[in-house]
Amino acid sequence: MASSWRIRGGMHTAPKHKSTINQETQNLLDVLDNLAPHQGALLVDGDKPLVVNNFSAEELCKMLKCHTFQMVPCMKPPFAGYELWLDEEGAFHKPVNRTASNALHKQVHGEILHGNVLVVATNTIG
Q1: Do 39 and 50 form a contact (C-beta atoms < 8 A)?
Q2: Pairing mode, if any, of strands 6-8 and 69-73?
Q3: Which DSSP string corresponds to 23-35?
Q4: What does the alpha-carbon distance between residue 33 and residue 30 come to, in Å, rounded to a whole number?
Q5: Which has the higher per-residue pLDDT, 82 or 16?
């Protein structure tokens, strides 16, 4: 049986179906499809994804507006093969990021993300 999955950036991803992918997810996939190596998509609540490319610890703290950050690997399609970088303590003191939560809810326990979220291909930041 032929597969309906396609390859995006060398990774297998689920097909784009309007009925199963919301607008935030589609916007993020469109940005990720066009990233150059060592670029990422920054999700700020209420905005479309922003392309960023400086991933020093200092710059990550500025982007994420935090003092400490953490990485969460994406394990479920269509974002398997990507990583989320976010404020380690964001759930305690940052508002819900509806844009990131709507697009990435399947990737995190509780399905809610707080504060700015950076999405990059696995091993982009090291």
Answers
A1: no
A2: unpaired
A3: HHHHHHHHHHHTP
A4: 5
A5: 82
Look at residues 74, 54, 77, 76 and name the one whose alpha carbon lies nearest to residue 64: 54
DSSP structural state of residue 107: G
Question: Residue 59 and residue 71: Cα distance in Å, rounded?
Answer: 15
Q: Domain limits of the chain?
A: 20-121
In contact, 118 and 42? CB cutoff 8 Å = yes
Extract the tokens encoding 18.
Answer: 């309007």
Task: For residue 24, name the pLDDT band (cuts at 50, 70, 90).
Answer: very high
Average confidence (pLDDT) over 40-59 = 94
Q: Taking residues 3-16, what's their average pLDDT?
A: 46
Instruction: Please state the pTM of the whole predicted model.
Output: 0.82
